[in-house]
């Protein structure tokens, strides 16, 4: 009996650990630039997959808590139209005038009779139009220049929602005229397919991997084990951040030692 009771306790503790890992959102704070300078707060959220409420509050409440200047959304908002409407209703509650979005693979694919299939071009454009109608700037292989303080910033969004869709539509010489460059994509494969060594940027933000969702002894288990989690410094200027995301995949609706994440970047002016 004692052995059975101990097993039950262990199972309950394991279940609580999985629930906590899946639904407790962690803020990841990254400081960039001169520590003494005034900071711009950039928030990245990604891979919601319809999830908007967590143990520590709603998505908008958690994002608003850090008072963002820029919000970057790097794809996979939802798996179904019903989820998309719910997610966009929540994002509309975020108190930030500058929200940017790049599409992920789940904007390209729809759930039909429990199976994912490629959306038609018409359906895909309708999804992007719905996102734009929520006052979110969609960057699909295009740029958005913005002046912050006395510096020229550039936000550039790649469409790598399907492999081979990503394009740089600016000349590298034009990129070099900006003092701060933030690049957005959904999949970390962008670093291997479209970013050339001479291409300038300060911060590349992606998602897609969910951090593997299951991590043991600090290592990702499964398909994305060759990708890092969090921040990687490429050189003195370039930083590459892979966000764990907020939701889970349909096939694996849990996380283990890999909590969902809101990434907060404090970038010096």
UniProtKB/TrEMBL annotation:
- Domain Calcineurin-like phosphoesterase as annotated: residue spans: 41-211
What SUPFAM superfamilies does the record tag this protein with? Metallo-dependent phosphatases (SSF56300)
Q: Pfam families under this entry?
A: Metallophos
UniProt-recorded name of the protein: Calcineurin-like phosphoesterase domain-containing protein
Source taxonomy lineage?
Bacteria, Bacillati, Bacillota, Bacilli, Bacillales
């Amino acid at each position: 009996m004692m052995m059975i009771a101990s097993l039950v306790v262990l199972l309950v503790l394991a279940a609580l650990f999985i629930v906590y890992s899946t639904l407790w959102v962690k803020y990841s704070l990254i400081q960039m630039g001169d520590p003494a300078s005034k900071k711009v707060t950039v928030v990245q959220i990604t891979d919601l997959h319809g999830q908007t409420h967590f143990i520590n509050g709603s998505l908008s409440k958690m994002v608003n808590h850090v008072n963002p200047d820029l919000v970057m959304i790097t794809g996979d908002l939802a798996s179904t139209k019903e989820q998309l409407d719910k997610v966009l209703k929540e994002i509309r509650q975020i108190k930030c005038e500058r929200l940017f979005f790049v599409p992920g693979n789940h904007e390209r694919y729809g759930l039909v009779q429990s199976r994912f299939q490629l959306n038609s071009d018409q359906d895909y454009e309708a999804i992007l139009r719905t996102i734009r109608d929520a006052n979110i700037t969609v960057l699909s292989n295009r740029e958005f220049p913005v002046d912050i303080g006395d510096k020229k910033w550039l936000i550039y969004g790649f469409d790598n929602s399907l492999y081979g869709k990503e394009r740089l539509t600016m000349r590298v010489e034009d990129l070099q005229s900006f003092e701060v460059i933030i690049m957005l994509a959904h999949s970390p494969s962008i670093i291997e397919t479209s970013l050339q060594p001479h291409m300038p940027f300060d911060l590349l933000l992606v998602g897609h991997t969910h951090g593997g969702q299951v991590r043991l002894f600090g290592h990702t288990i499964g398909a994305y084990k060759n990708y890092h989690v969090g921040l990687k410094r490429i050189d003195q200027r370039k930083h590459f951040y892979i966000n764990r995301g907020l939701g889970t995949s349909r096939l694996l609706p849990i996380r283990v030692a890999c909590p969902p994440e809101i990434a907060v970047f404090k970038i010096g002016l």
